[in-house]
UniProtKB/TrEMBL annotation:
GO terms for biological process: pentose catabolic process; pentose-phosphate shunt. The keyword Isomerase applies. It catalyses: D-ribulose 5-phosphate = D-xylulose 5-phosphate. Catalyzes the reversible epimerization of D-ribulose 5-phosphate to D-xylulose 5-phosphate. CDD domains: RPE. The keyword Mitochondrion does not apply. The active site is at D33, D173. Binds 1 divalent metal cation per subunit. Substrate binds at S7, H64, G140, F141, G142, G143, D173, G174, G175, G195, S196. This is Ribulose-phosphate 3-epimerase. Pathway: Carbohydrate degradation. Its EC number is 5.1.3.1. Pfam families: Ribul_P_3_epim (PF00834).
Length: 216
């Protein structure tokens, strides 16, 4: 069963608790986009917001760090209540060390690759991670168009997972909606992050059902 992870980046931050409650019943994770204005050209939220939404939902908080030096903030996000912390390969010269640091916090560890980063860059770490996030847009903003050339990387990750019996989940993020979700799942994606396709719609439940029914 494909998992759905609504990205609160496109939610109304003035009523964030209600926004999360609105999607909770139809979702598997809540995806939290952390941006620092350096690694990506946008600034969003920090550990304080993760701490504030932690009591709002029992769903796992899937924290996507789009920041430089993520190792400085791993324990703050873990203490705030993150269940999964993912870091970008492009931001981590010592990726193995950061992944171990995340796991030592008792949190699931994910690694993320941008559209221009090949799977080969993360191959040595694939046996250590709980999640691999394939960016299907360039990170920084919601509402961008899906980049088709990322699909072959999802296929490679699925092949490597099956061949080596790795346990990571394959997640995709960016431009995911009813029109693009099925090609991701057909390529091997197991978790779909969607921001604007859910939170820019009046009826979020219908929006999620629409994505799920597109997979049939
Ligand atoms: C983009 C973020 C995404 C974003 C996706 O940098 O990582 O999680 O919210 O937004 P949509 O689904 O609108 O492309
Ligand atoms: Zn994200």
């Amino acid at each position: 069963m494909t998992k759905i992870a609504p990205s609160i980046l496109s939610a109304n931050f003035a009523t964030l608790a209600d926004e999360i409650k609105d999607v909770e019943a139809d979702s598997d994770y809540i995806h939290v986009d952390v941006m620092d204005g350096h690694f990506v050209p946008n600034i969003t939220i920090g550990p304080l917001i993760v701490d504030a939404i932690r009591p709002v939902t029992d769903l796992p908080l899937d924290v996507h760090l789009m920041i430089e030096n993520p190792e400085h903030y791993v324990s703050a996000f873990a203490e705030a209540g993150a269940d999964i912390i993912s870091v970008h390969q492009e931001a981590c010269p010592h990726l193995h060390r950061v992944v171990q640091q995340i796991k030592a916090e008792g949190v699931k560890a994910g690694v993320v690759i941008n559209p221009a980063t090949p799977v080969s860059q993360i191959e040595p770490i694939l046996g250590d991670v709980d999640l691999v996030l394939v960016m299907t847009v360039n990170p920084g903003f919601g509402g961008q168009s899906f980049i088709d050339s990322t699909l072959s990387k999802i296929e490679s990750l699925k092949e490597l997972k099956d061949k080596h019996l790795y346990h990571y989940e394959i997640e995709v993020d960016g431009g995911v909606k009813a029109e693009t979700a099925k090609k991701c799942v057909d390529a091997g994606a197991e978790v779909l992050v969607a921001g604007s396709a859910i939170f820019n719609q009046d009826n979020r439940s219908d929006a999620i059902k629409n994505i799920k029914s597109s997979l049939k």
